[in-house]
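A reminder before we start the practical. When you read a complex entry, don't treat the lines as separate problems. The point of joint prediction is that each chain is placed relative to the others, so the output describes one connected object in space. Small molecules and nucleic acid strands, if listed, are placed in the same frame. In the example below there are two entries. Take a minute to note the order of the lines before looking further.
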Amino acid sequence: MNKKLAIEITNLNKSYDDVEAVRGIDLKINKGEFYGLLGPNGAGKSTTINSITSLVKPSKGNIKIFEKDIEENFRFARSKVGIAQQEVSQDWFFPLEQLLYFQAGFYGVTRPNAKERIDYILDKLGLSAHKNKKMRELSGGMKRRLQIAKALVHDPEIIILDEPTAGVDVELRHDLWTYLQELHRDGKTILLTTHYIDEAELLCERVGIIDNGKLIVEDSVDNLKKLVNKSSIVIHLKNDIYDINFLGGFDYHISEKKVYIQTESPNLDLPKIILKFSEASINIEDVHIPQTSLEDVFLDLTGRKIND
Amino acid sequence: MIKNWVGFYTLSSREIMRFFSVWRQTIIPGIITTLLYIFVFGVALENRISEINGVSYKIYILPGLLMMNVITNATANSASSMLQMKLLQTLPELLITPLSSLELSLSFIIGGTIRGFVNGALILLICWMAGMPIVNLPLTLLFIFLVSWSFSSLGLFVGQLSDSWDQLALIQNFVITPFSFLGGIFYSIKMLPAWAMTLSQVNPIYYAICALRESTLGVSDTSLIISSTFLVFFTISTTILAVQLMATGRKIRF
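Here is the predicted structure of the whole assembly.
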């Protein structure tokens, strides 16, 4: 992977009156990386990404896009980034296609040069049939697609999506995931904020967990899961049983007809354990190895669930 | 300095297209109001009010009415466009683009200027058809342009600072409208007591009306040099004010 940095945030702090929304965030995102900022509402995700686009003025800290300071090189930095805000905007005056031409124009793309790109995006996001409609005539899902189209209209190298699938239907959610994976394959750097665990697990190469304005941990999804010592085997027995001393070498407990066995290598230990049950003539109905999710990681690190 | 010319042109065009797309709200009302004034003052009141500075009362008030329309339209355009963008969340999509504060401000100001100028030019035509002379047409158009530009800048300033339509209406009702009426639309300030006359001389709208009255009717309460110098100074000041406020990002970047 090319290790050139697309986004570099150093010691980002932001306070609103007495509230510290972001407290010393350091973040490095490589070019071509799919990075997810995961955290509950109000954790500081939007403040962080809006600082990258200069919508938020940091109280302290420094941000670089492709190694250039975003304030000193604001035209360069902003032209490299496309962002779909969480809040859907409403422009009542113009049809959808015209709005995209305006947005491209703001980025310095002339109308003739924007045409091919706009036609492509309209088609890609399923908006072609609606291009002459004004926003009042669009459904919620269509508005969200338009929001994303606006972020992509100038073909940015870095795409930032703030909760892109919040409140959208399942079909659009999956369409969007497929499209984002395609953009990633094309070499785009993608920064996604979400509070949906499955979204982060499916899409992101690296995930940063943010809570109370601090980045508490960041790593690949697999490595994050290893942080939680939850690896275990659950054996569901046919009959009640109280004496399973033959499992002496393992840490275990019994609840009703289920035996919970703690182990760091469930796949390796499972055959040995089944053999022991078989030797003791205890009938097994089902065997289950629960998977650790990012939800468990979040719970383990913060002591609460992400959507609490 | 302007560097993103395509962006600047696009936003200026958007601002102009925006008010033209709702021309029933932005062009027609000024024309109707002026026609009503001409009708009421011309038909009902003219014989009861004597001439001012040798000009019939109906004609005397027309440059003032014209300026009031220009001021209202220019101010409302940039103010409402800015506030609407804030409230409907389209402003963030604009602020993240590679447009500088100067490019952003000038585009909004141009939108309001064109609306003020178009309204002014149409009302000038109506006034001329109603019998108002135009002593110097190029100067008249220049004054309409300057007033449009300066009040569009002021509108942008107010729009950026406003958080709601109520606040905007407050400025319109308690600042713009009283200043317009006290700027001498319906009277010569020489008819006022001395203290009110002095007060009128710090009212920018007074100079706007004086300048236009001079370039159309050839009569005025103050000299053309003073009123036109004031207008140029006022236009530059309001422009700097609006551009500087945009650069601070106050109430738009957080």
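Discuss with your neighbour: The CA atoms of residues 42 and 212 of chain A lie 7 Å apart. What might explain this?
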